[in-house]
């Protein structure tokens, strides 16, 4: 109470001093409000932050302003896609389901809608998303911009679900895009890094509502390597995690079921991350002892089973912040790369405690999709947000590149335009479409300008 009162009196004193000072004017002084992403690794001080409520407002904003415009979602990307000193545009006030087609099981949804706000209304309309990532705070437009994905060898990234989209371009024009209408723009816009314009509506191909049975099993790392490929082929959704300095990890599968809703006792993943950090801090003097204690403890953890509606079972709460690097590798290279990553990590980086995440994603034909024309394994490494990630990521990234990985567009990496041109057969096609739609570079911040000009 005393602290709050002291804070209040300090604010009052500062305000009073400014009011009587001839050199400071509260009315005329302009202060830019900083924008930061979820982890705090990216930030900027935009001149303006706008949140239009309609396409017409967005058109007026684009045509009446100068400088760079960057669309911003929920800030869950770690790469520098958003930062600009000019204008940030949020579609948070343009959200919700616009319409749905019960015969085709399709729904048109405003692009500012968070994934976590789609599941329940879709279910009420007799539909469900075919796949979801393990975090549901992203905006739908952000998921398209970065090729956000879940896991499952038979399911693609979120953009593969798109049947049509609406795009507002740099001159304020509204384009309807699909396989039949503006087809090249459609292929480019499904994964575009927000560099073509602002996507305002998306029509998704969905399914009937379904229930998932999620089974989590703790295993030794060597066992996971032995069963991973078979489990990826025999389960609808499959992923696994390896916990550094434990020799242990867990497999996670989801399969469609008609069994009644049920759940066993669940381990809180946020508590788990904090426990791993505590073990790292307390046992930093002996990684070997740390492994003995943690592996012994993990062998006592019960398996988990959760049966729920699909949209409730996909996502987890992530309250322990981190920075992340994720690469998408040809499926045949994934486990080989993971073994090398583990060796480097446990040889040189005893301070790392966040698990390594390993997922499977089906290939597609979207121009800038990291899954373009290949079946894929995704490997993600993390560092606690208050700790320097660069040395660790710099040591791991060459392994991921050696095995022909393409980085997740929303995750940290050090690739440049020449690197991406080698990785993406349709890179020049995309650049051509981008240049036609936005010749003045209105949607290019410094990072994107380096890639596309």
How do the helices and strands line up, and which of them pair or pack?
Blueprint: H1 2-20, E1 35-36, E2 43-44, E3 48-50, H2 55-64, E4 69-72, E5 87-90, E6 97-101, E7 106-110, H3 119-124, H4 140-146, E8 162-168, E9 174-178, H5 183-189, E10 198-205, E11 211-220, H6 221-234, E12 237-243, E13 248-256, E14 262-263, H7 269-282, H8 287-298, E15 304-309, H9 310-313, E16 322-330, H10 334-348, E17 356-361, E18 376-384, H11 390-402, E19 406-407, H12 417-423, H13 427-437, H14 446-452
Parallel strand pairs: 3-5, 4-5
Antiparallel strand pairs: 1-2, 6-7, 7-10, 8-9, 8-10, 11-13, 11-15, 12-13, 12-17, 14-15, 16-18, 16-19, 17-18
CA-based gyration radius: 23 Å
Oligomeric state? single chain
CATH architecture of the domain at 211-408: 3-Layer(aba) Sandwich
Q: Calculate the terminal CA-CA distance, rounded to whole Å.
A: 56 Å
CATH domain topology of the domain at 211-408: Vanillyl-alcohol Oxidase, Chain A, domain 3
| Uncertain regions spanning at least 5 consecutive residues | 1-9, 11-29
Q: What general form does the structure show?
A: globular
Amount of beta strand: 15-25%
Provide the CATH superfamily of the domain at 211-408.
FAD-linked oxidases, C-terminal domain
The major sheet is characterized as: 9 strands, antiparallel
> In which order are the strands of the major sheet placed?
14-15-11-13-12-17-18-16-19
Number of strands: 19
Tell me roughly what share of residues is in helical segments.
25-40%
* The CATH top-level class label of the domain at 211-408: Alpha Beta
How many DSSP helices? Answer: 14
* Secondary-structure-derived class: alpha+beta
- Overall pLDDT metric: 92
């Amino acid at each position: 109470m005393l602290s709050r009162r002291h804070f209040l009196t300090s604010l009052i004193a500062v305000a009073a001093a400014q009011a009587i000072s001839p050199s400071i004017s509260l009315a005329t002084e302009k202060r830019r409000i900083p924008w930061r992403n979820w982890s705090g690794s990216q930030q900027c001080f935009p001149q303006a932050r706008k949140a239009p409520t309609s396409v017409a407002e967005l058109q007026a904003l684009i045509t009446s302003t100068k400088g760079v415009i960057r669309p911003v979602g929920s800030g869950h990307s770690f790469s520098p896609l958003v930062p600009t000193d000019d204008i940030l545009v949020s579609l948070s006030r343009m959200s919700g389901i616009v319409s749905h087609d019960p015969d085709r099981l399709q729904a048109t949804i405003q692009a500012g809608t968070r994934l976590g706000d789609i599941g329940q209304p879709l279910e009420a309309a007799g539909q469900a998303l075919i796949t979801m990532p393990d975090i549901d705070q992203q905006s739908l437009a952000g998921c398209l911009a970065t090729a956000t994905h879940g896991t499952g060898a038979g399911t693609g990234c979120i953009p593969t679900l798109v049947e049509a989209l609406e795009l507002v371009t740099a001159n304020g024009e509204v384009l309807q895009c699909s396989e039949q209408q503006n087809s090249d723009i459609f292929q480019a816009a499904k994964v575009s890094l927000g560099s073509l314009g602002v996507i305002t509506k998306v029509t998704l191909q969905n399914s009937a509502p379904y229930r998932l049975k999620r089974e989590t099993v703790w295993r030794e790392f060597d066992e996971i390597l032995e069963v991973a490929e078979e489990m990826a082929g025999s389960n609808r959704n499959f992923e696994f995690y390896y916990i550094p300095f434990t020799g242990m990890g867990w497999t996670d599968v989801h399969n469609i079921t008609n069994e009644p809703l049920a759940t066993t006792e669940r381990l809180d993943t946020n508590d788990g991350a904090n426990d791993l950090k505590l073990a790292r801090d307390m046992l930093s003097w002996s990684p070997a002892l740390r492994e003995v204690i943690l592996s012994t403890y993990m062998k006592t953890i019960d398996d988990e089973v959760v049966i729920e509606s699909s949209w409730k079972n996909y996502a987890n709460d992530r309250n322990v912040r981190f920075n992340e690097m994720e690469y998408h590798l040809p499926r045949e290279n994934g486990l080989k790369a993971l073994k090398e990553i583990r060796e480097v990590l446990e040889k040189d980086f005893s301070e790392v405690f966040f698990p390594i995440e390993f997922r499977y994603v089906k290939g597609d034909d979207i121009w800038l999709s990291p899954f373009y024309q290949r079946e894929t394994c995704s490997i993600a490494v993390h560092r606690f947000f208050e700790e320097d990630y660069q040395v660790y990521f710099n040591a791991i990234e060459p392994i991921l590149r050696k095995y022909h990985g393409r980085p997740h567009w929303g995750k940290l990496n050090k690739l440049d335009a020449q690197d991406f041109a080698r990785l993406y057969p349709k890179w020049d096609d995309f650049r051509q479409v981008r240049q036609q739609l936005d010749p003045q570079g209105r949607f290019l911040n410094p990072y994107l300008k380096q890639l596309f000009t």
